[in-house]
Structures are given as C-alpha cells and as structure tokens.
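Private note to self, pasted from the team thread so I don't lose it. Backbone tokens:
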C-alpha cells in the first residue's frame, strides 16, 4: 500500500491515513446534500481528503463517527492541485474507519536505533566515577527502561518527532559534551551523566499511536521535572551517593532549558549545566537544517526562515 509521498496525479488510490483534523461538514452550493473535508496523513506527509456525499444523512453520520486520531481506509482519486487532495465520490468510492493497523505507518521510526544504542553504551562506559556509573547502570541495565528509551520520540513535533528520536538526540548531546570536556577544565563524569540523563523524562512524556501526543503529566510538569524525578528516585537507592554530586547533577538536568524558557525551576549556576544547555540547544537547532522540502523553511525554534540549501547535481 502506497504512502502519501508516492501518490501520482490522477491515479486511483487505496491508502491508510490517520485523521489529523476534521475541517467541517459543508453543504453543496449548486445541489442538495453535503460533503466533508479531513486533513489526514501518514509518516511521509499530510493531505486533504474530500468526501462527496450522495446521501445527506449517511454523510452526516459518517462525518460524526470519525474522530481525530482515527485511521481511515480511503479509496478515491488523487488530485495534485495547488493543495493536493484525495477525492472520494460516495457513489463508487469509499472511506471507512479501520481498527487494525501498525502505528509505524503513521509515526516515523529511526533506521539506525541499534547503532545509536551501541554508541550510547560506549559513552556510558566512559563514566568512571563509581556513584555516577552505578546510577547509569541502574537505568541502562534495566531491559524495560532500555526498550522504552530507544522507542521514545524526542518531541511531539519538529526534528526529533519520531520513534528513536530521544536516543538519537541524547547521543548527539552526549558526544558534544564529551568533545567539550576535552577542551575545558570541568567534571567530565558529571557532564556526561547529565547529558545522558537530561531528557529521560520524555519516555513518560509522550504517547505514541497514530501521532505523538503529550501526556498531561508533561503538560503540567514539563519533561525536565519528569527527568529530575526519575534520576532523584534512582539516586535514593544508591548507598552513600555524595550529596554535592547529587545536587550538581540534578541542577544540570532541571536547568538545561534555563536561558530560553521563562518558567524553569532554576537558572544555570554551574559550568557543567551551562555546557549541557548549549549542547542541547545546538543539537536541536542544527537538526532543523536536515528538514526535507524546499530551499528555505521556517524554523519555529529560531523564529525565522532558514536556508536548507540545494542538493548538488
């Protein structure tokens, strides 16, 4: 079955799409009856679906039965207009809700998660401090945690909004911090541990089905607090974990969005926390330059258009 990006103008299509938005039930201008419009998509893109009803009551009932997040099987005709859409004529084409589907069709998945995790473990092995090493081991020797970590998205939208995005972002931030630690005098083990654990609360922050949704806990507390709570709980299980080390680690985690977010619990006060903030921001920002599409694209993070460049022929 094709994806949105594979559709060809004028062809008949049979495609599974997740409903992103319901755009309204409308009356025909020149005849009796109603039609409706949906925005739907898969992991390759979004498209409009226009359902042209012949029976007003049945059209209304179908529209009311569809909810955002539902998966629909669409049999219609693809029209590559200024705004591409799939036209569904109810006389001889069809649209129905389906219950059996793979979420991976609708949410992108990293193709390199095994390699990413191998590199993550190599970074973890670099931490020599006995207490920090025990802390990392308490997470990454837990098979359930590792499964959740490597399958978690890095965000609900944007560059890391895909399964495996959290692990890829964490690895990039950790590698940046590792490089910086070779230039400046600082607590390398503390910085690496903070980098590895700074976003682990995101495994509790998102729910993945046909889209990535932010859970209420993340909306109310934020992923930094969720990360803080998870790390603090594990530290309490480690005998004689130094208080100063605990405070500096938790400080780096809780403040890693500090200079750009007004409502963070604490402002940056240590060298390691400062480096973590910039490594995190640098990776998130540079990832936006890997977006596919036109030569220029709008970056919400930067608040301006950014130049993506053109592929060399």
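Design output:
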């Amino acid at each position: 079955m094709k994806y949105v990006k594979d559709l060809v103008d004028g062809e008949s299509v049979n495609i599974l799409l997740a409903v992103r938005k319901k755009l309204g039930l409308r009356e025909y201008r020149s005849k009796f009856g109603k039609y409706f419009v949906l925005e739907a998509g898969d992991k390759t893109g979004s498209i409009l679906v226009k359902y042209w009803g012949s029976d007003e009551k049945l059209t209304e009932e179908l529209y009311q039965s569809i909810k955002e997040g539902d998966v629909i099987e669409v049999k219609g005709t693809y029209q590559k207009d200024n705004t591409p859409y799939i036209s569904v004529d109810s006389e001889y084409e069809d649209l129905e809700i389906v219950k059996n589907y793979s979420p991976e069709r609708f949410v992108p998945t990293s193709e390199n998660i095994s390699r990413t995790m191998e590199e993550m473990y190599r970074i973890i092995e670099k931490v020599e401090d006995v207490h920090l090493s025990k802390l990392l081991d308490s997470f990454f020797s837990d098979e359930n945690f590792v499964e959740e970590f490597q399958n978690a998205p890095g965000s609900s939208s944007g560059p890391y909004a895909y399964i495996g995005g959290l692990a890829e972002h964490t690895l990039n931030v950790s590698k940046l911090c590792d490089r910086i630690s070779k230039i400046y005098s600082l607590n390398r083990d503390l910085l690496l541990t903070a980098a590895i654990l700074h976003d682990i609360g995101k495994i509790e922050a998102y729910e993945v089905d046909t889209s990535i949704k932010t859970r209420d806990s993340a909306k109310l507390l934020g992923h930094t607090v969720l990360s803080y709570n998870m790390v603090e709980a594990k530290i309490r299980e480690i005998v004689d974990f130094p208080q100063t080390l605990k405070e500096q680690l938790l400080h780096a985690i809780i403040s890693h969005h500090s200079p750009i977010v007004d409502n963070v619990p604490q402002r940056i006060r240590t060298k390691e926390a400062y480096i973590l903030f910039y490594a995190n921001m640098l990776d998130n920002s540079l990832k936006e330059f890997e977006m596919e599409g036109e030569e220029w694209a709008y970056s919400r993070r930067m608040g301006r258009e950014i130049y993506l460049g053109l592929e060399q022929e």
